[in-house]
Amino acid sequence: MTSGGKKQIKVGILGATGTVGQRFIQLLSAHPYFKIHALGASSRSAGQEYAKATKWKLNTPIPDEIKTKVVQECKPTAEGFAECGVVFSGLDHDVAGDIEESFRQSNLIIFSNAKNYRRDPLCPLIVPLVNPSHLSIIAHQKKTLGLEKGYIVTNANCSTTGLVVPLAALEKGFGPLKTVMVTTLQAISGSGYPGVPSLDILDNVVPHIGGEEEKIEWETNKILGGLNSSNTEFDLHVSEEGKYGRINVSATTTRVPVIDGHTASVSVKFRDSKPTIEEIQKAFREYRCEAQELNVPSAPPQAIVLHEAPDRPQPRLDRDLHNGACVSVGRVRPCPVFDVKFICLVDNVRLGAATSSIMNAEIAVEKGLIV
Ligand SMILES: NC(=O)c1ccc[n+]([C@@H]2O[C@H](COP(=O)([O-])OP(=O)(O)OC[C@H]3O[C@@H](n4cnc5c(N)ncnc54)[C@H](OP(=O)(O)O)[C@@H]3O)[C@@H](O)[C@H]2O)c1
């Protein structure tokens, strides 16, 4: 039973042995709404006890009740998945598309970290500190696909997640943005385990992460965009010339020798307004979101932590704030080209991945979308 007296919902984890999967296990092992029931990974791991199948990389031990749990193949018919009220996915994108669809077709509810369904016109792309209202498209998704219960909700690329939270605070305070320029400094764990070879990343910066810039430019507009009044279509602002997106976003992504925590340098131009730096700092400090109003278990007390020190945020010092569930913002200053520039930091595996999926599912529980 949960602390509120509700029955805990059984959950499955796909990709349970990977970087994101391990965070799911850590975060769900003592969760008030959810109880881990089934674990899935590739055929290399299936049939083995979890502790043997995974290379555990977190600084807390594998929870006792998980160590001897047998990893299953990622099939909806594999032991345990049919009883799950939610299935969290930390699958590689090259396999996530087909596997997640097979779970949805079996009337299971998927909360996914993979990129495969983020652009799907029926699937919400949700950063829980920004746009949980997009969950309203789920009824249309189920109806269109003729499914009684199954649906897919995705969360964003890890860098996009860290970016859109401060951008949402700016739009809430001062109206639409016109242009965003962002350069990221992304952690090694962002590419999963074992990730970039040490000889490529130590003493180095790699100025290219395949597909990442397009994800930031595209996803930002879906997340900050609207849903029509009948909750059936996202407003993606495609112009007659085919130009996509309400906000012009230009991203440059780099990989740096940091284990966890993606940093971004951001410059923003507003469409109509010209707030002062003090007003912008206040908007960051006072930003509140629906996850906080609903008081779901993973919602951080502050969605944005505004740092005053000129040398913050830093990944090593700030990624653990509020258990990695918030975005740190600092160095808010005038931009001589646009209006304002700042630095933001997100824990890429927590708010950037597992925490977002879990918080999205908590919100879905509160909205009666998971029973
Ligand atoms: N790392 C991050 O910061 C981050 C942030 C946001 C989103 N994501 C996304 O989350 C997903 C997982 O990323 P990750 O970093 O956790 O990757 P990872 O460490 O490489 O883990 C991948 C997982 O997928 C499983 N898998 C691989 N091939 C499979 C197959 N054919 N059938 C079933 N399972 C298979 C692996 O199982 P085995 O152990 O058995 O091989 C493992 O559990 C990706 O889509 C990634 O883009 C990652």
From TrEMBL:
The keyword Glycoprotein is assigned to this record: no
Domain Semialdehyde dehydrogenase NAD-binding: 10-138
Keyword Kinase: no
Gene Ontology biological process: methionine biosynthetic process; threonine biosynthetic process
Reactions performed catalytically: L-aspartate 4-semialdehyde + phosphate + NADP(+) = 4-phospho-L-aspartate + NADPH + H(+)
Active site: 158 (acyl-thioester intermediate), 262 (proton acceptor)
Keywords: Amino-acid biosynthesis, Methionine biosynthesis, NADP, Oxidoreductase, Threonine biosynthesis
Pfam families, sorted: Semialdhyde_dh (PF01118), Semialdhyde_dhC (PF02774)
EC number(s) on file: 1.2.1.11
GO terms for MF: aspartate-semialdehyde dehydrogenase activity; NAD binding; NADP binding; protein dimerization activity
Biological or metabolic pathway of the protein: Amino-acid biosynthesis; L-methionine biosynthesis via de novo pathway; L-homoserine from L-aspartate: step 2/3; Amino-acid biosynthesis; L-threonine biosynthesis; L-threonine from L-aspartate: step 2/5
Family: Belongs to the aspartate-semialdehyde dehydrogenase family.
Cited function: Catalyzes the NADPH-dependent formation of L-aspartate 4-semialdehyde (L-ASA) by the reductive dephosphorylation of 4-phospho-L-aspartate. Mediates the second step in the biosynthesis of amino acids that derive from aspartate (the aspartate family of amino acids), including methioinine and threonine, the latter of which is a precursor to isoleucine.
Name by which UniProt lists this protein: Aspartate-semialdehyde dehydrogenase
Organism in which the protein naturally occurs: Kwoniella dejecticola CBS 10117
